[in-house]
Design brief:
Helix content: 40-55%
CATH class: Mainly Alpha
Mean pLDDT: 93
CATH topology: Four Helix Bundle (Hemerythrin (Met), subunit A)
Strand order of the largest sheet: 1-2
Structural class: mainly alpha
Distance between the termini: 47 Å
CATH superfamily: dinb family like domain
CATH architecture: Up-down Bundle
Largest sheet: 2 strands, antiparallel
Order of helices and strands: HHHEEH
Number of domains: 1
Low-confidence stretches: none
């Protein structure tokens, strides 16, 4: 017996961006929850600080959108913010850039395989999902740090 397959499109590019931006809003609130003196100083078990992790998210987001869009994979040069307010300013600037650049990704590029930054070979959609998954994964680490500091993290389900 042959199994009939049907192509199903589950998410639009706009819905994907809105989902990602929802996660970014939650990550921003997680950054805000850290005391200024702990964001770049506190870690558990020798892991990176949440400030360093947030910089990793920043170094991936816009460069991945630009890479998926154009096939040009250029590292994000941002310097190293020294304070929470500097990090949040950079975060907010990048949020605006994502809203501007994401809709310009040609539809075909979501399914085209490319080697992002010479490291990960996968379709554009998978590369974007990698950035989202990486942020979610490491935000969980931030939640552990906040709890270790006696701070209640923002509700993980509230991405408004």
């Amino acid at each position: 017996m042959a199994i009939e397959t049907t192509s199903i499109h589950l998410v639009t590019a706009d819905a994907l961006l809105q989902n990602w931006q929802g996660h970014r809003r939650l990550t921003r609130r997680t950054i805000e929850a850290f005391p200024d003196d702990k964001l770049f100083q506190f870690s558990v078990g020798g892991m990176r600080t949440f400030g360093e992790l947030a910089l990793e998210f920043i170094s991936m987001a816009v460069p991945i959108v630009e890479g998926v869009s154009t096939g040009k994979w250029i590292a994000f040069e941002h310097g190293k913010p020294q304070t929470k307010s500097e990090l949040l300013r950079l975060w907010d600037t990048q949020t605006e850039q994502l809203n501007e650049k994401f809709p310009k990704i040609p539809a075909a590029r979501f399914s085209e395989a490319d080697k992002a930054f010479g490291q990960w070979e996968m379709a554009g959609l998978a590369t974007i999902q990698y950035a989202i998954d990486n942020e979610i994964h490491h935000r969980g680490q931030g939640y552990v740090y906040l709890r270790a500091l006696g701070i209640e993290p923002p509700p993980f389900w509230d991405r408004n």
